[in-house]
Design a protein that fits this description.
Distance between the termini: 110 Å
Shape: rod-shaped
Strand content: under 5%
Mean pLDDT: 76
Number of strands: 0
Structural class: mainly alpha
Radius of gyration: 36 Å
Low-confidence stretches: none
Largest sheet: none
Helix content: 40-55%
Length: about 80
């Protein structure tokens, strides 16, 4: 009989103290923003890395028109004389 009273008392304390917190509405979760990119697109590279990337680009794409100093030198003129 005493055990039943102790259990009932503990259940009452639990209901009084913990249940209101457990039953309250949870606030909506806001999505976390994506993490920032770890690398900078405008960072300066060490000279050795720049030379390696230039060699790699020239080796992989030897006919890339974006690597030329002046794209008009291949005979495509903008209306003026073609520089020699």
């Amino acid at each position: 009989m005493i055990a039943a009273l102790v259990l009932a008392t503990l259940a009452g304390l639990f209901a009084t103290l913990c249940l209101p917190r457990l039953l309250r509405a949870m606030p909506p979760r806001t999505p976390e923003p994506p993490p920032p990119y770890p690398e900078s697109m405008t960072a300066e590279l060490p000279p050795g890395d720049e030379e390696y990337l230039a060699w790699l680009a020239n080796d992989l794409w030897p006919e890339d028109e974006y690597l030329e100093d002046d794209p008009n030198r291949k005979g495509e003129s903008d209306g003026g004389p073609i520089p020699a």
